[in-house]
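Support request, please re-run this one:
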Amino acid sequence: MDNKPNHSLDKEFENLIKFSILNIDKPCGPTSFSVSDYVRKRIVEIAPEITKTSHFGTLDPKVTGVLPIAIGRACKLTGFFLGHDKTYIGIIRIGKEISTKEIQEMIDEYFIGKIKQLPPVKSRVKREERVREIMEFKILEQSADKKDFLFISKVQGGTYIRKLCHDLGEKLNCNAHMLELRRIQAGIFSETDKEFVNLYDFDTAIDDFKSGNTKTLKQLLISGQEAIKKIMPVVNVKKSAVKQLLTGKPIYKNDLIDKLPGKNQGDIFAVFCKNDFIEVATTNILEKKHKDIVAKPLFVFN
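Re-run finished. Output below.
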């Protein structure tokens, strides 16, 4: 294996691959961590200096679909994406003969809006009741044998769909369990995105790259700074402020070109100087050593 970096890359591409996201179509079987690690090992083959990848939200081994993988410096963005809404399509098996209408009526009464959910026994989080919002939970069709039901559900990040199916069964006074599940959307990432890629095609893009064709891989990489623009407000600063901001200094009122977003203490926003991403900052300032300090950095891109 040739682990030497490709020095013929243009600077734009080098910057992209060091701060990018892949929207991977996770297959059934491997864990989210193992998919992320596989991506890392393949990226290292063409860029040895990139030693880290991380995923934006775990999918169970048997669950397929949208699994965004951050590469390099983009791993620092994980916390800003994790809590976003998710959309799933799946199959639930109901343990008694029942109509689609009856199930939907139960869903509409108990499983739409804010609900209380206790994480399953086999979970990595503390088992305590949490409030989660269900924006959509709709039965789409019933199987010919009348046992299985296709559904779509849009939920707040951190909602357990398997537990949702189980709890629905309890309300119906029967056993119910999830047979299949696919995530079709996670925040700004969707299976309809042109960059959405399965592992086979990702492998092909890496092999093409090693053969000298960088186009395929470049089309799959989502710029970290472009992704940031889609999830939070953007505030531009003066060029004269960039040097100090890249060292982690706070933002002063005179550094700003744009007005700060919102009026709430703790608002988060992306800081740019024209097209260059500088940092993610917050207006949540516990100590203000200077009256003109308006924000502090959460993540600095230096």
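The domain at 11-81+189-227 is CATH 3.30.70 (Alpha-Beta Plaits). The longest helix spans residues 32-46.
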